[in-house]
Design brief:
By secondary structure, this protein is α+β, with helices and mostly antiparallel strands. 62% of the residues lie in helices and 6% in strands. It has a 5-stranded mixed sheet with strand order 2-3-1-4-5, sandwiched between helices.
């Protein structure tokens, strides 16, 4: 598709203009290089080595391509565009922004226009082609700038992709079993640009929530997907501001957090965090907000032994089966309060929010149903497990 004169103003120039410009190119090149070195601080150094070759090539190619476009606008820039893409990539790799390179382009355009305008007037060019020539120069510089911006963005995306990949590898290395050697973790951390902290905490969330949770946590948090769950590693989890950060992370999503451990024990923290998420899915612990494994260890113990706790429940709670659902629920509530308070009717009444006499009546009924279980310490222990599990 042939572009319009508005987007490619050099199409309106007679190819004889190229013959006016071409003899000036060597002098224009040298003046542009000298002016760039003088006016752009990042480039104020000898044009030597790869740096010097890159700048000199960029200026020279820009001028040659511009003349070529005047002679044959339909030829396009072709592979010549790659020079400016690579210049943009180079700026990113050197850790600079595009500001200096774009400033150099503007300097080049200014110098080129001054020299080319002088040559045009000396050759008798009229005002209209000179005006179009100025427009063409600055439109062309815009194209070079866009090429370099593309190169810079592409290089930045590659770096970010590599960083994400290395951070994911590090996160998985931390929970490898058996634990990875400290030297291997340190090497992976260096490659990922991550400082190994004294302690870490692993956290788990639903995979669909991982992005939302991660955005609310500190940037040094490692995040990836593992075994179908969102998996995060929070450095220094008990440090200043960490509690607030975790609260923000769980503001709209459930977040299960394992205990703070040394990095070598991250697998333990992850196992507890993931188990807590599973327990939450099953309704064994709350299903929303911030969940800390250390606050739910008993529930996790019971949840992890589902088969055993089911057998204990079947054995210890069998006497309640003939009751109606409402009566069974009331007796289970009473029995749990009984084992928690050692049969103290007053304490039970306070917890259950009933009259002390009602509590005594319920205790009597409980003894009718459960009998000796209430007096045997081992039986009471199993009864409490059964009641907590069934609750």
């Amino acid at each position: 598709m042939i572009k319009s004169l508005d987007s490619e103003p050099w199409r309106g120039l007679d190819e004889r203009v190229a013959a006016v410009i071409e003899p000036e190119l060597p002098a224009i090149t040298e003046e542009i290089l000298a002016t760039i070195a003088r006016e752009v601080p990042e480039y104020a150094r000898p044009l030597e080595g790869n740096f010097g070759r890159g700048i000199r090539t960029g200026v020279g190619e820009a001028l040659l391509q511009f003349v070529a476009l005047i002679r044959d606008p339909d030829a396009g820039r072709g592979t010549g565009r790659e020079v400016y893409v690579q210049l943009g990539r180079g700026e990113q790799r050197q850790g600079r922004t595009l500001d200096s390179l774009l400033a150099a382009y503007r300097v080049g355009a200014r110098v080129a226009w001054r020299r080319i305008a002088a040559a045009g007037r000396a050759a008798g060019l009229e005002a209209e082609p000179l005006t179009l020539l100025a427009e063409a120069i600055f439109a062309y510089i815009d194209e070079l700038s866009a090429d370099s911006a593309d190169g810079f963005a592409a290089a930045q995306a590659e770096v970010e992709d590599l960083r994400r990949r290395r951070r994911r590898e590090l996160a998985l290395l931390l929970i490898r079993e058996p634990a990875a050697e400290a030297a291997d973790v340190a090497a992976a951390a260096r490659a990922a640009g991550w400082t190994v902290p004294a302690t870490v905490a692993a956290a788990a969330c639903a995979e669909r929530d991982l992005g939302a949770v991660t955005r609310r946590l500190p940037p040094e948090t490692l995040a990836t997907v593992h075994e179908g769950d969102g998996y995060l590693v929070l450095p220094d989890p008990e440090g200043p501001g960490r509690a607030d950060a975790l609260a923000r992370g769980a503001a709209r999503s459930r977040l299960a957090v394992g205990p703070a451990v040394e990095p070598a024990a991250a697998a333990e923290s992850w196992s507890l965090a993931q188990s807590l998420l599973r327990a939450s899915d099953a309704g064994a612990v709350p299903a929303t907000g911030l969940l800390r494994a250390d606050d739910h260890l008993a529930e996790l113990l019971l949840f992890g032994g589902t088969t055993l706790t089911a057998r204990i429940a079947a054995r210890r709670l069998e006497p309640l089966l003939p009751l109606t659902a409402k009566a069974s629920a009331r007796m289970r509530e009473t029995a749990l309060s009984y084992v928690r308070h050692g049969g103290n009717a007053v304490a039970m009444a306070t917890e259950l929010q009933i009259h002390a006499q009602t509590a005594r009546y319920r205790i009597a009924r409980l003894r009718e149903l459960l009998g000796d279980q209430l007096d045997d310490p081992d039986a009471r222990f199993e009864l409490e497990i059964a009641l907590r599990t069934s609750r």
